[in-house]
């Protein structure tokens, strides 16, 4: 079953690629409008060392930003679990931060922190923390009230209530938040790079567009897509293996 789940998407992608190649050849579409997969593969092969060097930068930004978003998202969810009076402050503030346009805050981040990796890491964190926070908080709030009453009757301590009931209930919600957040981290890092950088996949995309190298541009897009999928799968598998007792 697992082999089919892996082979079927790969076979579908291969058939689509071949069909796309044949269709573009028959339609005689210019490579400056839409390059054929064979040209994209050639550009990827010829420029792989450069692409890979920039890919490592983007992946590093994405993973560090994602790690910070885990700390921030879970921390905020815990803060208004234990201090519910803070919820009217934390939730609107988190929503406001999450919805600030990158274009508006990027110049401030770049002026303050420079054009290195730090601003991109912060952009990834801003994009990723909200689904983690919202889902984890929803998990804490979904505790069965009858189970909660039972723990109260048995005079469970606050720590026992958290570790034996609230945390196990919230973990599936947390895993969902991780899935949603992980699917956006590469794109978020690249968006940050497009707003100002000299390295990363965003830089590869900018250079490709400025030099009208559309096959290289599509190669960067393909790499972005593949790496995004792989990282999402990795965090899904890691989360489920780590918390498989409760999921």
Task: Spell out the blueprint of helices and strands.
Layout (H helix, E strand, L loop, with lengths): L1 H26 L9 H10 L1 H35 L4 H12 L3 H12 L4 H24 L3 H9 L4 H25 L2 H10 L6 H10 L3 H29 L5
Helix pairs in contact: 2-11, 3-6, 3-9, 3-10, 4-6, 6-8, 6-9, 8-11, 9-10, 10-11
What does this structure look like?
By secondary structure, the protein is mainly alpha-helical. The protein folds into 2 domains: 30 residues; 208 residues, MetI-like fold. Helices cover 82% and strands 0% of the residues. The protein has 11 helices and no strands. The longest helix is centred in the first third of the chain and has 35 residues.
| Number of structural units classed as domains | 2
| Main pleated-sheet profile | none
Look up the CATH topology of the largest domain: MetI-like fold
**Count of β-strands:** 0
Please trace the helix and strand order, writing H or E for each element: HHHHHHHHHHH
CATH homologous superfamily designation of the largest domain: MetI-like
Fraction of helical residues:
over 70%
Over all CA atoms, what is the radius of gyration? 22 Å
Write down the overall mean pLDDT.
83
Amino-to-carboxy terminus distance: 20 Å
Features:
247 residues; mainly alpha; MetI-like fold; elongated
């Amino acid at each position: 079953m697992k082999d089919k789940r892996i082979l079927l998407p790969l076979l579908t992608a291969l058939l689509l690629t071949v069909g796309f190649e044949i269709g573009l050849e028959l339609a005689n579409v210019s490579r400056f409008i839409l390059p054929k997969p064979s040209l994209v593969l050639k550009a990827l092969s010829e420029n792989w060392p450069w692409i890979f060097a920039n890919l490592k930068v983007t992946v590093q930004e994405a993973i560090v930003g994602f790690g910070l978003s885990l700390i921030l998202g879970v921390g905020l969810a815990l803060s208004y679990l234990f201090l519910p009076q803070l919820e009217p402050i934390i939730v609107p503030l988190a929503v406001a931060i999450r919805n600030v346009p990158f274009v508006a805050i990027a110049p401030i981040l770049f002026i303050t922190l420079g054009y290195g990796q730090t601003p991109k890491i912060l952009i990834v964190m801003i994009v990723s923390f909200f689904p983690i926070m919202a889902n984890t908080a929803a998990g804490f709030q979904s505790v069965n009230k009858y189970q909660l009453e039972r723990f109260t009757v048995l005079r469970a301590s606050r720590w026992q209530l958290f570790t034996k009931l609230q945390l196990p209930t919230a973990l599936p919600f947390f895993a969902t938040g991780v899935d949603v957040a992980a699917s956006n981290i590469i794109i978020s890092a690249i968006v940050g790079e497009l707003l100002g950088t000299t390295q990363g996949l965003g830089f590869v995309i900018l250079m490709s567009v400025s030099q009208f190298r559309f096959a290289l541009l599509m190669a960067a897009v393909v790499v972005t897509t593949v790496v995004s999928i792989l990282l999402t799968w990795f965090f899904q598998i890691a989360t489920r293996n780590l918390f498989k007792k409760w999921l």
